[in-house]
């Protein structure tokens, strides 16, 4: 039984067991329906199409279903491998072992030691001198610790893997720490930048419905992770009695952390309620944009052959990228 990363354009057909990540029902020019399936195992992802669709197919081919495809045709379209599927059977979770497989074989995981790096992150937070930043950030990630460590950072745009939210957030923290010596001359609150990097996407623990990242929750669809994250930060500030200072004024450190979240997409047209007006928020939005684009471009490069081009990547200005290196 082949894995997804073992497929190439020299294979005409194959049998494989995969997990369905996403299902799209589409309509052909002749008016008939067909199904687009986003498939995965722990080695990678591939898109498949089933051109003849029945009502039974629509019931059986659902997100998170494990499916055995037999004699799936391997095709190449614009340099990207695709499958044409017809003969299939749904495999129950209990029956995976009959194929020598386990549930964990169908989820791509962040390529880092999350437990070790989470310990490192907590050590960084414990060393902070700004008590508001420290208590709010620790309080919020502890509140959603399980989700923070296991959820993807998005459904498709970037870091859509198990543990992707932590991986992405911790990468931004490491980027900030790496640049700190080079910008020692600048008036930068590095503790604010670190905490903003950790919290900027915390709303995704509510925006995304579950660790598999197959859909958005109702709150995610109608509110979005930025507003959710800002609300959660306010709530934890109230719970920890950090919303106002001793004079009854709204805690300025809280306000700065809120700005880090709501300005994290950089521009209003990219979904930020406000644009960065402090240097740390500008830096965070640039780190965030860079990390998302590097992940997405690399993910698409992994799907094409050497010396060929990726398809146009919508989230990177619709550009195609050339694969010059394995």
Average pLDDT for all residues: 94
How much of the residues is beta strand, in percent? 15-25%
Structural class: alpha+beta
Count of individual helical segments: 11
Encode the helix/strand succession as letters. EEEHEEEHHHHHHHHHH
CATH architecture of the largest domain, by name, is: Orthogonal Bundle
Oligomerization category of the chains in this entry: single chain
How large, in whole angstroms, is the Cα Rg? 22 Å
Helix content: 25-40%
Low-confidence stretches: none
Q: Per CATH, what is the topology of the largest domain?
A: Hypothetical protein af1432
The CA-CA distance between the termini, in Å, is 25 Å
CATH class division of the largest domain? Mainly Alpha
The domain tally reads: 2
Describe this structure in words.
The protein is α+β, with helices and mostly antiparallel strands. Helix 5 (164-179) runs antiparallel to helix 6 (190-199) and helix 6 (190-199) packs across helix 10 (252-262). The chain has helices at 55-60, 114-126, 131-143, 145-150, 164-179, 190-199, 204-207, 218-222, 225-239, 252-262, 279-301, and strands spanning 13-27, 33-41, 44-50, 66-77, 80-84, 87-91. The protein has a 5-stranded mixed β-barrel with strand order 1-2-3-5-4. It is 37% helix and 16% strand. It folds into 2 domains: 4-106, OB fold (Dihydrolipoamide Acetyltransferase, E2P); 114-299, Hypothetical protein af1432, CATH 1.10.3210. The chain is built from 11 helices and 6 strands. The protein is elongated.
